[in-house]
């Protein structure tokens, strides 16, 4: 080969390399797809999103159920909780969206056409569901999601520490504050509500005799009782009896298990973990009365399955939801009681689940039934965020509660106007 | 000037001069003070690394215990095995993905941005300035908001879960292009002119003269770009849907934000996410200093 | 890459002259070459950077909630909403406060480290590596070490342990905004991550200062120490300092990761990008308002940069060398 052609070839190859990189397919040769597992022969492929549950075995369980289904090949994406929402909402805008996903019932997903109508699969078994779980998923007579688990949230406390400090289980917020003070030592804080206190916002409102929205979808949280509650929370926050800056959030019982605090706000799911760590040295109680005229309360959170309305396989996805979360009662019970503890929304299952029949679990179920408040589908994420801001401003900082609530009102009303006109 | 770029002095000024000159902040403090200050700074800079290693090799009980322990009573080497045998997070695979992504990212960025930087700096074109400002303008736009449209766009190309999707959209860095331009503005013109007289076009002169004489700077940019590629998080998070295509940062976030926090695993994962970069660094930093000394941003 | 074969070309000198001429039209054309060099970059920039920017711009005039393909045109409503939004305006204040903290401290620390390292006789490479090493860490990793270990609010955090030895109560560094300890956490994390990199810039600049200047000063009777530092070193570092300050400002403006990881769900300590993330990307998914905020920010930053360019003359290629 002559020198000339050689140098030409060199030049061209360099150019090709440069262009190749810019061109779309350039890197395909360098590795290509890193690989979704491909379909076996059965035809339809479905993808589902779950947030990462903390309890060991949960991911394997969800994948096990999916594998047992023979009419479609279901792939599970197990996404860490902090990233779950950004990832879910970003992908819902694209063709890579999951066909089905778990979330909480919020009306904006229905109004913006993100989730499919599931009335036809839920309707036949409607009577076997907790009526509140049907109501919280219904808009204009249509049911948009299937509840998988109900998760009541309340306080967990160390019985031994209570005895040692001579503290009774508190029934009012004032008593709770006193208890926190008495239980605080140099190594242990009295109370943990999470670093941002967000999880007690709704219970505090309910326990003050107020609500988030009334039946006409108008603001119902802006009451004197709530203002008094916020002031008490502020006092508690500055009292030095509250555990702050813990490395784990309040949905993780680590702070209680590690002896960092004597009382922690957490959820029913944590019960098996706490039992392992603390034996029988613990009990539960609902959020106490914010003001004397209020009533103790429990937030009944939970997770539901939704079908992406823009999926190419809406029918197949609905089939799968029906198969797993309506027909397969054995799996539903396994999911609700074998890992963390959750209350099955199916009345028949809730009645037969033996693990929830004794001890603290039974007490949890009682609190759920007696003091529980369910999600309001009209109470959306933007509104939740507004109240979180109220807490951040008036409890963690010292803004006047009235002013903070006024600010929230403006944001919530803007949202309500967009949703309900 | 000769064909080599000015070498950066690594050591004190050449000897043989009668006057002993103290350079820089010389004389502001005594040698003892100097070494004490350096010692304190070193200590402070190493504390986070110490904590990382201490926590990675402890049990959770020791990390969270009532009494502070400077060193784990029993070093838990088993934590390493635990990290790599975790079934839910393919950690070894994620390290490999990160290595591939960061390497290809670096090669791509250097190639594309250096060419563009050279074009903008050295090739006379009447609209070159306008093009330059168009590039510079992209630096002003906050990425947090163009993020979702970018994702929708890349997803519509079908690049989710692929190396393509992880790498290509990040190649066109206005900032890197800008740095290359600044550097090439300072590149001695005589060298290229000599090459042009020899009959080399812009392209030939670039590959035969400019690049070989700029390897220090390329190495510096490679180091910085590699770190960026290795450490980027939000984009790989949404693009890497399947655990098989997670990068190490995504895998790491999996430990961090899980509902249950396992301290030793978090810190072990973090340690392993940093380790490869530390090696790359120790190896490349010599060129980094020299390369940066030659950018347009110098004294 | 095939850059080593330079000699090949010089050899067939006679053969080269004739074919080179006809090709000169294209190969020698600056315009063609300009596009040849910048083309790949510009194509990519258009697709992956400009298209999303224009998309965002378009979104900012629509009511785009839970969708990026909206159909309800609302004119400037998103803009008025963002401009009258206390949180968004507040985020600009936060940025200013943050920049006022971080820019001078990083500048001073990295210069100080550079001066130290530059004067060392022994183990210079070792110390340079120590200070430079944190640059290799990601913000995610640093946030984690800071949040979980150094500034953990409970008893097993390092700072609280150390304070405990002096009988000081645990401090909730991040959870309690009064006093605003969170700034300490954020600024130290960023200092640790960044200082080493800028130190390298300063070391490079220090080594470029000609010895003659120091010699001349010494002959003129300037005492080594503050005098030479003040009258020679610092002025000689002017260009680098300007560049470092500009880079630090850009970095402060782009700050996101450590705020996002360290201060989740607060109403304080939110610089603009974090604020916009919560508005546009996070749970509320109001892409219209978020995009409007981004456009406002872009306009602001462009104005500031142009102003600074006027004052300092940075970024105009002809002058920077």
Keywords summarizing the entry:
heterotrimer; B: 299 residues; mainly alpha; MetI-like fold; 2 domains; 14 helices; disordered N terminus; C: 321 residues; 16 helices; 0% strand; globular; disordered C terminus
Describe the protein:
The complex is a heterotrimer of chains A (421), B (299) and C (321). Helix content of chain A is 44%, strand content 14%. With 421 residues, chain A is of the alpha/beta class. In chain A, helix 10 crosses helix 17. The longest helix of chain A is centred in the first third of the chain and has 20 residues, at 3-22. Chain A is globular. Chain B is mostly helical and 299 residues long. Chain C is mainly alpha-helical. The longest helix of chain C has 34 residues, at 86-119. The two termini of chain C are 29 Å apart.
Q: Which band does the percent of strand residues of chain B land in?
A: under 5%
Strand percentage of chain C lies at under 5%
CATH class of the largest domain in chain B: Mainly Alpha
Biggest chain-to-chain interface with counts: B-C, 118 and 126 residues
The tally of strands of chain B reads 0
- Tell me the CATH topology of the largest domain in chain B: MetI-like fold
Residue runs with pLDDT of under 50 for 5 or more positions of chain C: 1-23, 315-321
Brief description of this entry?
The complex is a heterotrimer of chains A (421), B (299) and C (321). Chain B is an all-alpha fold and 299 residues long.
Reconstruct the topology from this structure.
The complex is a heterotrimer of chains A (421), B (299) and C (321).
Chain A: H1 3-22, E1 45-51, H2 58-68, E2 73-79, H3 81-92, E3 100-103, H4 107-111, H5 119-122, H6 131-135, E4 138-139, E5 142-143, E6 146-157, H7 159-165, H8 173-183, E7 189-192, H9 201-207, H10 224-238, H11 254-257, E8 261-267, H12 271-278, E9 283-285, E10 298-307, H13 314-327, H14 329-337, H15 347-352, H16 359-371, E11 372-374, H17 381-396, H18 401-420
Parallel strand pairs in A: 1-2, 1-3, 7-8, 10-11
Antiparallel strand pairs in A: 3-10, 4-5, 6-8, 6-9, 6-10
Chain B: H1 31-56, H2 60-64, H3 78-84, H4 91-122, H5 128-137, H6 143-156, H7 163-167, H8 174-185, H9 189-197, H10 202-210, H11 215-231, H12 234-239, H13 248-256, H14 263-293
Helix pairs in contact in B: 1-14, 3-14, 4-8, 4-11, 4-13, 5-8, 9-10, 11-14, 13-14
Chain C: H1 6-10, H2 13-27, H3 30-59, H4 77-83, H5 86-119, H6 124-132, H7 139-150, H8 158-165, H9 182-207, H10 211-219, H11 226-236, H12 238-253, H13 257-262, H14 272-281, H15 287-312, H16 317-320
């Amino acid at each position: 080969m002559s020198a000339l052609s050689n140098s030409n070839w060199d030049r061209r190859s360099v150019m090709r390399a440069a262009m190749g990189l810019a061109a779309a397919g350039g890197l395909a040769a360098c590795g290509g797809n890193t690989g979704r597992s491909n379909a076996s022969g059965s035809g339809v492929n479905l993808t589902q999103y779950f947030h990462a549950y903390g309890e060991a075995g949960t991911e394997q369980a969800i994948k096990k159920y999916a594998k047992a289904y023979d009419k479609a090949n279901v792939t599970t994406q197990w996404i860490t909780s902090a990233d779950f929402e950004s990832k879910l909402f970003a992908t819902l805008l694209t063709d890579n969206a999951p066909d089905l996903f778990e979330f909480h019932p919020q009306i904006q997903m229905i109004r913006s056409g993100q989730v499919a109508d599931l009335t036809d699969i839920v309707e036949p078994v409607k009577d076997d569901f907790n009526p509140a779980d049907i109501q919280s998923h219904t808009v204009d007579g249509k049911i948009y999601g299937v509840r998988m688990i109900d998760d009541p949230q309340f306080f967990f406390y160390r019985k031994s520490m209570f005895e040692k400090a001579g503290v009774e289980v508190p029934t009012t917020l004032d008593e709770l504050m006193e208890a926190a003070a008495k239980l605080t030592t140099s190594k242990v804080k009295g109370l943990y509500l999470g670093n941002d206190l967000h999880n007690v916002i709704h219970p505090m409102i309910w326990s003050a005799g107020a609500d988030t929205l009334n039946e006409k979808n108008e603001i119902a949280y802006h009451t004197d009782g709530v203002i008094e509650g916020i002031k008490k929370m502020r006092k508690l926050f500055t009292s030095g009896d509250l555990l702050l800056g813990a490395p784990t959030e309040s949905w993780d019982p680590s702070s209680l298990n590690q002896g960092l605090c004597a009382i922690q706000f957490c959820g029913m799911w944590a019960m098996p973990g706490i039992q392992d760590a603390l034996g029988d040295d613990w009990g539960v109680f609902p959020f106490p009365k914010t003001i004397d005229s209020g009533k103790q309360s429990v937030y009944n959170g939970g997770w539901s399955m939704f079908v992406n309305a823009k999926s190419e396989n809406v029918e197949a996805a609905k089939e799968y939801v029906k198969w797993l979360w309506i027909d397969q009662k054995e799996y539903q019970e396994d999911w609700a009681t074998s890992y963390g503890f959750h209350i099955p929304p199916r009345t028949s299952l809730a009645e037969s689940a033996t693990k929830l029949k004794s001890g603290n679990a039974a007490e949890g179920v009682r609190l759920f039934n007696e003091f529980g408040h369910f999600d309001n589908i009209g109470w959306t994420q933007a509104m939740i965020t507004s109240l979180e801001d109220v807490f951040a401003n008036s409890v963690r900082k010292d803004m006047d509660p009235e002013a903070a609530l006024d600010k929230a009102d403006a944001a919530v009303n803007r949202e309500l106007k967009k949703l309900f006109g | 000037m000769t064909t080599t770029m000015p070498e950066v002095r690594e050591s004190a000024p050449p000897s043989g001069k009668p006057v002993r000159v103290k350079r820089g902040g010389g004389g502001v403090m005594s040698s003892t003070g100097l070494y004490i200050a350096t010692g304190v700074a070193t200590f402070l800079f190493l504390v986070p690394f110490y904590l990382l290693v201490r926590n990675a090799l402890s049990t959770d009980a020791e990390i969270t215990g009532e009494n502070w322990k400077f060193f784990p009573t029993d070093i838990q080497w088993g934590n390493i095995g635990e990290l790599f045998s975790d079934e839910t997070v393919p950690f070894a695979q994620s390290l490999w993905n990160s290595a591939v992504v960061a390497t290809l990212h670096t090669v791509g960025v250097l190639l594309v941005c250096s060419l563009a930087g050279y074009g903008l700096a050295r090739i006379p074109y009447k609209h070159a300035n306008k093009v330059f400002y168009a590039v510079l303008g992209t630096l002003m736009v906050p990425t947090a908001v163009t993020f979702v449209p970018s994702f929708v766009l890349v997803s519509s190309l079908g690049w989710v879960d692929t190396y393509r999707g992880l790498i290509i959209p990040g190649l066109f860095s206005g900032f890197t292009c800008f740095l290359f331009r600044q550097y090439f503005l300072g590149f001695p013109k005589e060298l290229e002119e000599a090459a042009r007289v020899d009959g080399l076009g812009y392209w030939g002169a670039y590959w035969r003269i400019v690049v070989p004489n700029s390897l220090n700077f390329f190495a510096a940019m490679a180091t910085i770009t590699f770190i960026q590629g290795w450490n980027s998080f939000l984009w790989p998070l949404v693009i890497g849907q399947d655990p098989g295509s997670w990068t190490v940062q995504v895998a790491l976030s999996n430990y961090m934000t899980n509902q249950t926090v396992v301290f030793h695993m978090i810190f072990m994962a973090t340690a392993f996410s940093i380790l490869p970069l530390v090696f790359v660094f120790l190896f490349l930093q010599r060129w980094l200093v020299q390369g940066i000394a030659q950018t347009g941003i110098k004294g | 890459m095939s850059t080593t074969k330079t000699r090949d070309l010089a050899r067939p000198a006679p053969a080269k002259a004739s074919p080179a001429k006809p090709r000169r039209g294209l190969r020698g054309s600056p315009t063609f070459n300009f596009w040849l060099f910048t083309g790949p970059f510009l194509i990519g920039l258009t697709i992956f950077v400009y298209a999303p920017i224009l998309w965002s711009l378009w979104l900012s005039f629509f009511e785009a909630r839970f969708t990026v393909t909206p159909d309800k045109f609302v004119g400037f409503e998103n803009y008025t909403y963002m401009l009258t939004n206390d949180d968004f305006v507040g985020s600009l204040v936060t940025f200013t406060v943050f920049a006022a903290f971080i820019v001078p401290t990083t500048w001073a620390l990295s210069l100080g480290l550079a001066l130290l390292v530059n004067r060392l006789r022994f183990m210079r490479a070792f110390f340079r590596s120590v200070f430079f090493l944190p640059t290799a860490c990601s913000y995610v990793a640093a946030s984690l070490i800071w949040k979980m270990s150094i500034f953990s609010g409970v008893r097993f955090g390092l700072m609280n342990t150390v304070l405990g030895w002096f009988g000081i109560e645990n401090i909730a560094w991040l959870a309690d905004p009064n006093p605003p300890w969170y700034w300490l956490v954020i600024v130290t994390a960023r200092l640790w991550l960044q200082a080493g990199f800028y130190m390298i810039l300063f070391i490079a600049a220090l080594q470029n200062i000609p010895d003659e200047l120091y010699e001349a000063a010494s002959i003129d009777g300037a005492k080594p120490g503050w005098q030479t530092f003040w009258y020679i070193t610092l002025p000689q570092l002017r260009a680098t300092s300007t560049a470092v300050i500009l880079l630090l400002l850009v970095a402060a403006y782009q700050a996101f990761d450590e705020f996002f990881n360290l201060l989740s769900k607060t109403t304080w300590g939110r610089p603009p990008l974090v604020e916009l993330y919560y508005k546009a990307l996070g749970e509320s998914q109001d892409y219209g308002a978020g995009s409007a905020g981004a456009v406002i920010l872009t306009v602001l930053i462009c104005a500031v940069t142009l102003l600074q360019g006027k004052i300092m003359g940075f970024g105009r290629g002809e002058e920077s060398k």
